[in-house]
Amino acid sequence: MDLDLEVKTIRNAPIFTGIDPCKMRLLACMSEQLTFEKGDYLFKVGEIPDAAYVILKGDVELLGQNGENLISIGTEGPGAMIGEVAVLCDARRFTSARAHTDISVMRINKDCLLRMMQDNPQFSMSIAKELARRVMQIATQDANILTH
Question: Which GO terms describe its molecular function (predicted)?
Answer without folding.
Answer: intracellularly cyclic nucleotide-activated monoatomic cation channel activity; protein-containing complex binding
